[in-house]
Amino acid sequence: MVKFNYPDEGARTGTVEKRTDFIQVGKRYRVAVELVSLEWKPEKYIRFAYWRKRKSKTGKTFWGWASQTRWTFSVDVTKPAIRMGEESGLFD
Fold it and tell me: pLDDT (tens digit, 0 to 9) for every residue of the chain, 92 residues total?
């Protein structure tokens, strides 16, 4: 499930239907391209997302959601992400 918060409308949800494999970016980040269905829209959306490696209070390492509303990775990262989306059938 994905969740979007809007200032005037509150939270709305959707579903990740497909996701590419992750591309590792340095030691602390990884990126993926997702095909997303939104509960309030008939169209499908492509979302570029990233996760950051974090530590829990107990010291356990995990991947935490880090995306906001923009994509700001280099062309060297973006091109393979788009290619993986194409190969995964996200744009069909």
Answer: 877 777 787 787 888 889 999 999 999 999 998 888 888 878 888 888 889 999 999 999 999 988 875 565 667 887 898 899 999 998 88
- DSSP assignment of 43-79 equals SEEEEEEEEEEEE-TTS-EEEEE---S-----HHHHH
- For residue 71, what are the CA distances in angstroms to 39, 48, 88? 23, 6, 20
* Segments making up each domain of the chain, as ranges: 2-87
pTM assigned to the model: 0.69
